[in-house]
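WARN retry 2 of 3 for item q-0093 after timeout on previous attempt; input resubmitted unchanged.
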Amino acid sequence: MKIALLLTGNELMTGDTVDSNSAMIAQSLAVQGFDVAHKVTVGDDMDLIVAELDKLAAIYPAIIINGGLGPTVDDLTSEALSLLTGEPLVENAQALAHVNEWCERRGVAANAANLKQTLLPASATVLANPVGSAVGITLRFRDCVLLCTPGVPPELAAMLEGSVLSALQLGFPDATARLVRRLKLFGMGESALQQIIADQCPHWPSEVVVGFRAGVPLLELKLEIEDEAHLSLRDQCEEELRQVVGDFIVGENDDTLGAIVIDLLQQQTKQLTLAESCTGGMIASNITAVSGASSVFGVGFVSYSNAVKASVLGVDSTLIEQHGAVSEPVVRAMAEGALERSSAHCVIAVSGVAGPDGGTDDKPVGSVWVAWGGVEHINTHLFHYPVGRKMFQTLVSALALDLLRRYLLGSTTVPNYYQRKRSK
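OK item q-0093 returned
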């Protein structure tokens, strides 16, 4: 089922707001059999909104309109629908009840701006919004179903899972939900993975469609079928992939490296500590972003300066003087100091040159020493990621978590990103 998407808002056109909603809509609905085939973004211009809707409605059976539902003068969607359909705006009883209830929960009286959100085209029905004050709207124009959603991402997310999907399924019962298996990989790019599939899985069945979603730090691989009869084929393809790139597959669906590491630590009843320098606490942030992190993570150290490395973690100052902060002896000492002070079982320590300044011939920008392991054994290795500062911190944080993941799994295989990212 091909549908269109119309996004509205001056902030999208000026770049003040980065569009993430269209990706959310496309990803949420694709697995249900609804593909966004056409996307248009316009500013808060009534004539443009009406013209685009009129054009799209002649081509597509459904349009999702995102943005323009709200209490302010630049929220134009309801009025645009009125002009498009020729229907008057009338007070909708269901929308009024929703606004009044929303205001009552906050201990305020509904004002004129709030009540603006209750004026809908006469034939419109309400799409429930469990989060915000503005209801969604659905109505039919010619042979096209229009579904209007707010631009606030949490509100949109809640509606996509509920009222919007229900309305689409009701209006288009023949849409076939896809059966998608999503795998998350770290340390391999899409071109390398595509080549591996071509070389090592030459008899890939046409019934199993491969898709990629490049991202940082994780790459998503999608295995998609349209018929339950092909589930065994998809399972076979996944098994083939795990045989050739299994070490790089870190999780599934919405898994994060932080959540994966926490789960492994919980299974093994182990505690983690961290000693971060160049990442400035980003590894700890990835861990504590996951509910339940406190069961495995009690304390971490952001020892950014050399003085703190010595005073807090007990790193011998002579090691720093002789080898520099970005060195194997220092990062190992950071890891040992963190373990000693926390009584944890596992540790990650990182020290590197994030840039753009501070590099030398021996330790260029992007160099980073990582230490990981446990009280029995600490591994160390030098990597090189010559990228921008923020990207460097993101990649190093993910790299460190992946190395600990491998350690917890008992993997002795050396990942080939060691070689590809080794500092010269």
